[in-house]
Amino acid sequence: MRAPIGDFDHATPAPACLDRLVGPVADAVRHWGGAVPAEQILYVETDPAWADTAVFVEHYGRDLLERSANCVVVAGRRGGGTSLAACVVLSTTRVDVNGVVRRQLGARKASFAPMDTATGETGMEYGGITPVGLPEGWPVLVDSAVVDLPYVLVGSGRRRGKLLVPGKAFAELPGAVVLEGLGIA
To answer: Is the pTM higher than 0.70?
Structure first.
């Protein structure tokens, strides 16, 4: 199958390649219940040596720069408690952690979660964290610009491989909250 974005050799519907996905992502695809069919979530093989954004778009297609999203784990603190959430923004922007995220989480302070926490809590590899398959109960804050795109490139849960996901599917993820201005220039 031809990928709807980027210059990839082959795109495979995610349900047909669950063995290439980490456990939490495979489980999420296996039990997908959104209006967007799971077969529209596509998996593409990528070389981890080309993970740097500039090299990645040079190799897989310049159109991906505006059609890629980053998923980062943030920690919100209030009093003695810490809560984790995921934020999904276009790769051309950065997460408004101290504004939109802090307010949405009702936190006194918000920051990016340490790498050990992000990978340990998600069961995913650093640099490949995806909003598909996050722990139950996590808020998934999604910038509205991501939802507006026909397809978006995101991590697959590991550094090798990416998912191509219809933008509107991000709004259907468990715990999803679509927000204006989550990603800032």
So the answer is: yes
Does 2 fall in a domain?
Answer: no
Nearest to 166 by CA among 69, 93, 97: 69
- The confidence score (pLDDT) of residue 50 equals 84
Q: Helix or strand or coil: residue 165? A: strand
d(CA 49, CA 71): 20
Return the structure tokens found at 63: 């159109």
- Over range 9-32, report the average pLDDT: 96
Range of the domain at 175: 12-184
- Is residue 7, in this structure, part of any structural domain at all? no
φ/ψ region of 79 (left if φ > 0, alpha if ψ in -120 to 50, else beta) reads left
- pLDDT tier for residue 125 given thresholds of 50, 70 and 90: very high
CATH number of the domain residue 91 falls in: 3.90.960.10
How many domains does one find in the chain? 1
